[in-house]
Amino acid sequence: MKRILAAALTATFLFSSALPSLAIERGGTMTYGRYADSLFLDPVLNDANVDIWILTNLYDTLILPTDDGKGLKPGLATKWNVSEDGKTVTLTLRQGAEFSDGSPITQEDVKWSLDRAKNPDNGIWNFLVQSIDTVEAKGDDQIVLHLKHPDPAILAALTVFNTAIMPKKAFEASDGKTMREKAENFAQHMVGSGPFVLKSWDRGSTMKLVKNEHYWAKGEDGKPLPYLDGVTFEVLPDDATRILKLKSGELDGAELIPYSRVKELQDAPNVDMKLFPSTRVADIIMNVRQKVNGKDNPISKPKVRQALNYAANKKAIIQVVTNGVGSPMSSYMSSATPLHTGDGKAVYPYDLDKAKSLMKEAGYPDGFKTSILVLAGSQDEIGTATALQQMWSQIGVKLDIQQVDNASRTQKYRDGNFQMRAGAWTDDIADPNEITSYYVYSPNIDAVHSGWKSDEANKLYEASQQELDHDKRAEQYKRIQEIYNSSGPTISLYESPYPVALSPKVHGYVQIPLGNNIFRSAWLDQ
Amino acid sequence: MSFASFIFRRVLQMIPTIVFILVVTFVLVRLLPGDPASAILGDRARDADVARINARLGLDQPIFVQFLYFVRNVFTGDLGNSISLKVPVARLIAERLPVTLLLTAMAAVIALVMAVPLAFVSALRRGRASDVVVRGAFQVGLSMPVFYVGLVLLIVFSANLHWFPVGGYGDGFFAHLYHLFLPALTLALSLSAILMRNLRAAVIGVVGAEYVDFARAKGLRSRLVLTRHVLRNALISTVALFGLQIGVLLSGAVVTETVFAIPGAGRLMIDSIYGRDYPVIQGLTIALAVVVSLIFLATDIVQAWLDPRVAR
Amino acid sequence: MKVVTGQRPRMHRVLFDLPATMIIGGIILFASFVLAFFPSLFAPYDPNAFDYGALLHAPTLAHPFGTDNYGRDMLSRVIHAYTIDMQIAVFATIVPVIVGTLIGAVVGYAGGLTEAFFGRVVDAIITFPFLVLVIAIVSVLGPGLINMYIAVGIIDWVFYGRLTAAEIKVQKRLDYADAGRVMGYRPSRVVFRHLLPNAMTPALVYWMTDMALAILLGSSLGYLGLGAQPPAAEWGVLIADGKNFMTTAWWISIFPGLAIVITGLGFSLFGDGLAEFLRTRR
Questions:
Q1: Which residue, A241, A286, B226, C99, is the most exposed by fewest CB within 10 angstroms?
Q2: For testing the chain C interface, which of B244, B258, B293, B299 should be mutated: the one with the most C CBs within 10 Å?
């Protein structure tokens, strides 16, 4: 276990390799264009990426993820230690750290925050810290986690937004009868532990963060972070408008640039087009149940799924859908996810002849009719489906494209009432267990509602959740990926970076592979 | 019947309309596939989480029970809280509806300024070059999808000429006007084309009618004839159409609001529909219904003023 | 009765006396319908065929309208879109025109309670959140054009209704209506034989605008993913697809845009001509 002391670490990470000689300038407000507004800025009770990817700027966790999304660095805890049997985690709390109102961050706040995060009645993220049995404050500055069982992912879980440290007193003093009402009010008048604090919020339009004057971390210049005076988020749902606003200098950054415009912005003189490495994967998820809507389902046959896989030309899809920005997948999880296996080549290389013979073997030499659900208005999903429609017509499969809105789609696949759907996934934790619990481990959500099940994979997953030996766990995950990739319900299409366009005067901003937008070390040329 | 009682009667008539809309909306949104939990959780929706959220929101109750609760709350002035945004619906409406009202009002003014004079020019100089040019220009405006027109305007006037900001709403009333000019113009293009065509046809019809000849024969100056007789009569059907189109604009400016990143009621509505945010959909529907009814009332009054026989 | 100045034209001369606008509009519409019925005769390529060797090509002799990001030939896509868009223009509006005009005529003539009731129906329909309706219909029938016709139809008829009702109210106070009543005709005959033909002009003129509007509405719904489904080519969807390429590949969105403008022009010229023709024939 690495034990590193904190100060100035972030700065080292960001600037040591890339921009060694640049002198940091302080001040200024960075304006950042987002595709959608946040909904509910509560670390525990939120449900969506629009919240998650912002929250890390408002609340610090005990441990912080490194900028490559895989490692750990000190946050509100300066060091940590996992006991030999893996059942006790002892963390040392940072001395002198304060909330944005100047009150000290105490052991009581930490215990309260973690208890709230692991409460199974709170939100949808508590499963990430289910192994924690009790949280104990020990001595002057220690926090001890007593686990129900050894948990190889516990330290990674302590970097995830839902274990962020919140001020117990200020929270409980919020208006509201229930804890939930308090949370709703607190989220709008928050006191935080992160580098920024929410100042004002015009729903659907503008959210203003200002610097937390009491933030603990020091910058490269020895003074407290953040460098910026504030960050202003503007909600600009239309891609083209967001880009125009960046180009005209009204924004310093714009997220989710459509792939089709990446090349253009890379060539533009006043734009710094970033492609931040990500854990995002795009795939097709197939319903593998024997019968769908009372009819026999050809896709229930593994050979048919393999044929569809071979007939899907991923290279071509990467070309036409992501304009070459994406890369092929060698497993269901992204190559940035720890314990990923594969060589960077597509699991199923394009092979039309093989696809045809597999279809024959499966008893469908002339193909069949099937359908795919795509998110209404999503250019990526529509493009992918349109390309597949062309490709699969070569093996006689007639694909009907159905655009539906998100809620209808969720309902359809929760009911098992679909044949295929386009999907995408981004990890929230630097561990393979999250995606695997949804994609593979059938007791959770029926393997992304596909109806697919492998007893071997389920057992391996359960064992891996308590396996502390890194090599053994890697072995387990290797086997899980073998099983899933060869017979699973998905067609892995591509993984793709986060396309963010920045003004050239922005430095030190990063979106980590887990999606979090990190503004704590960002600064602007004045 | 006096004018006052005409208005009073019309106001009373608004009530059943609004109640009807409310009931249908209430039922219809609950019949849409999916529920707030599925909308919020998406791929990660687990049965237990969905059930827990629905129970907390009272959505596990029979629909008529939900409706009774809702009616009770409305009568106590409580429109409830947004499911996805966790803030009172009344506050959301107070923030977002005025934006759309201002946008629509500006679009209406711009459309009238463009349509009315040019319709007369076009009608009175029928078949001449100016008529052809005016109609051609309006036709192009009418035929372009708003998201395309909006983007072209943004590229030309905002990104290149820097005359206007690229989208957004700004702070303060004059900043709002400034930010809303291009989107209002975008909406006004098709609205003015519709009005222009209708008004032009009406003017041509009226100019040919005998009472105009009669007025001319009486020796009235032609400008007076134009304003007093032609305008008045030609406007009657145009005012009716105008009222309807404004009603459509109010709830239908979604695309314009999206392109110009305006935090208006249209976007709130579509986000709420996609999010199955029932309380917001219901509250916003009531608010829009009241506003639209008032606009219809206003157009009825204007029509009655133009032609007192309408009010009868 | 209105005094018509000049000679009433004889039938065989009618064609020559048609307003020029009507003839030009008619030619445009005729050509549009020919393209709509026989797109394959004119389209040089399969509109849905990908060509990975020709992604985002600018207009050339081989591809006069260029290609899109899948290498599909834009000329062929624009031509094939005529089939869908002319359907949208006609099918989405034809029922509303007929139903709306007839209801409007009755309401305008009857007045009183009927009119008050109709007014509330109009208010309710216009005020109703249109997108809730569209999404509800789509969720029942699945996405596609039929749903759009239904959704548009439910809303659209009230425009014709209100226009016609207002006009009938004006017409029924003119002398010739009284003449009809005095002569003892049944109200239905007065309304449909005498008043409606004179009161229909605003509705007819609006219809022509409305067909262009229907195409645009289809495009807005396409933008939201609720209109024509891929890979079908539809002008609005083509423009929406081309939006992201506006600065780098303008041809993807310009040519479908031109097609909408020209077709819309055809409808409105024809409509203006028709209005003029009806007026002078009376």
A1: C99
A2: B244
